[in-house]
Design brief:
The chain has 197 residues and is of the alpha+beta class. The protein contains ten helices and five strands; from the N terminus they run E-E-E-H-E-E-H-H-H-H-H-H-H-H-H. The radius of gyration is 18 Å and the shape is elongated.
């Protein structure tokens, strides 16, 4: 197994990069979260990698962090989730936000990712719930013990749960809100107005 590669970034075009290491160019597929953080071509880069072996192909996947790589591997174990969908999930939300969505059974966040329908989102929540606990341990936590969110929507969700609302109630409120360019405070206010109005 190739666990990581450090080399010169020779090529990048979403979602693929080529890292040159000791005269060998490795073609590596990356999620957008990793791709957008890459430096200029010619720079030295370290990617945490996973080699996927199929009958007809060997594909290297590269990630900026070990946590992304671990989540990718966990997603591959979910029934009906292949490498393409796992990359889409990592491209659509951060590791902490995915773990938070699973913990709060937030299907609405998951279905915003292209290619993820309601049934797939529900399956992800059911199958990932038990698997993520030990992997999420290293991530920042909220006072309630949940993974801290890194988006305004996630922060608002956590704050409303901390105020005493059940995750299912917050999920229902969130379904009717517009999140574009809104801060966590704006989302919380709008949700509270809806809950009390």
């Amino acid at each position: 197994m190739i666990g990581s590669i450090r080399g010169r970034l020779a090529f990048k075009q979403p979602p693929q990069v080529i890292l040159e290491c000791s005269g060998v160019g490795y073609e590596i597929e990356t999620p957008l979260s990793t791709f957008l953080d890459l430096p200029q071509i010619g720079s030295d880069v370290l990617l945490h990698t996973h080699l996927l072996v199929r009958e007809d192909t060997h594909t290297l996947f590269g990630f900026a962090t070990e946590q992304e790589k671990k989540l990718f591997r966990l997603l591959l174990k979910v029934n009906g989730v292949g490498a393409k969908m796992a990359l889409a999930i990592l491209s659509g939300m951060g590791v902490a936000d995915f773990y938070r969505a699973v913990q709060h059974e937030d299907t609405a966040s998951l279905t915003r990712i292209p290619g993820i329908g309601r049934k797939t989102a529900e399956r992800l929540i059911i199958e990932m719930r038990d698997r993520i606990d030990k992997h999420a341990a290293a991530l920042p936590r909220t006072a309630g013990g949940h993974v801290a969110a890194s988006t305004p929507r996630g922060e608002a969700f956590d704050a409303l749960v901390a105020l005493g609302y059940k995750p299912a109630e917050v999920k229902k409120l969130m379904e009717h809100l517009d999140f574009d360019d809104k801060s966590a405070e704006d989302i919380i206010r709008a949700a509270l107005r809806m809950a009390t109005g």
